[in-house]
Amino acid sequence: MNGPTDRFVLPARILHWLMAALILAMLFIGAGMVSTVNDRYPELLAWHRPIGIAILILAVIRLGVRVTHRPPPLPADVPAMQAAAARASHYVLYGLMIAMPLIGWAMQSAGGYPVVMWKGFDLYPILPHNIIVYGQLRRLHGLFAYAFFLLILVHLAAALVHAWIRRDGVFQSMSGGSRT
C-alpha cells in the first residue's frame, strides 16, 4: 500500500465523482419507476438496469483502488466516535454500491426478466425463476434504496460540514484541491 497523502489518488477521485453522478441518477430513476402511475416505467427500467451494472463494476474497481491506496487520514482533532462513524459509513456505502446492483440483478433473474444491457446483450440470470424470491428481493431492494438514500444524505452533510464549517481539508482531499 502507498503511504499517507493529503488527498485521494486521482483514480479514486474520478471514480467517486463518476459514481456519485450515476448513483444520484439511479435514485431519481428508481423514484420515477416506483412513483404512482407511470407510463414511462419500461423506459426508466431500460436505463436503470445497465446503469446499475455499471455501478457494480465501478464499485469493484473502486474497492480495489481503496485497498491498494490508503485514503488520507482524517484531521487529528476529529473525535474518535466521528472517525469510527465515518469508517463505518464508508463500509456501508461500499456494501450498498455492490449489494444493490446484485440484488436488482438477482431480483430480475428470479422474476424471469432479462437484464438487458443493450439491444442484443442480456446478462445471464444469477437465480432461477421463483416469484416468491422475486417478491422478497424486490422488497429488500426497495428498503436498501431508502437506506442508501439516507446514508448519501448523511455523507453529503458530513462533506459540507468539512467544506464549509470545519474547513479542515477533508472535502478538498476528494475534490482535488489542496488540503492546506
Automatic annotation (TrEMBL):
InterPro entries: Cyt_b561_bac/Ni-Hgenase, Cytochrome_b561_oxidase, Di-haem_cyt_TM. It is found in: Cell membrane. GO terms for cellular component: plasma membrane. Gene3D superfamilies: Transmembrane di-heme cytochromes, Chain C (1.20.950.20). Pfam families: Ni_hydr_CYTB. It is a multi-pass membrane protein. The keyword Transmembrane applies. GO terms for molecular function: electron transfer activity; heme binding; metal ion binding. Belongs to the cytochrome b561 family. This is Cytochrome B561. It comes from Caballeronia glathei.
